[in-house]
Amino acid sequence: MDIFSESTIRLSRVRLNDAAKLLSRAFWGDPFCAYLFPEEETRSVLSQKFYLLNLQHIMMVGEVHTTSSFKGIAAWRIFGAGSMKKVEPESDPRSKLSTIMGEFAYARLMAANKMLNESHKRIMSMPHCYLLFLGVEPGHQGKGYGSILIDPLLKYADDKCLPCYLETMREENLLFYDKCGFRVVQAKELTDEGPFAWFLMRKPVK
Fold it and tell me: Whole-angstrom Cα distance, residue 114 to residue 194?
């Protein structure tokens, strides 16, 4: 199947494990993934578990899309527009993160998330669509799959007059997001040892 025949579909729960493995491969060299899991020997296994728990959470509160040929994953959450889905702490899959990640990685995650959440709340005080993950299978990156994956939610955001928001820790991603209408609104180092992060927002297109 070539890219012109691709369509975007919602991720099925039966493919959650496959999706976690795909994100682990897509983000293996990402600065944030390397920050959480600096040991290359264990990064693949631990990051798969990390992405699986996060995807399980997002499936409960947001939307996860893939392509018809399963070349990538886009995970979104919509904030403040109508009734927002919530998960009680005891039933949140992410409650298992500290166990699967280990004390060192989990402490780093909490430190980074504190700064990410603070910036998110400060920048996006209005209802918006939040792109949590966008990962394309290595070997297929740069071919247009990323655009296909996020297009449905961008159209939804435009229809509802909602801005979109994301963070990236890879400078080379900025050109792609710029072409999709995102603009950098803040940039800073997450922690003393953490990666540099860019915070981007896209205004709705009328």
Answer: 12
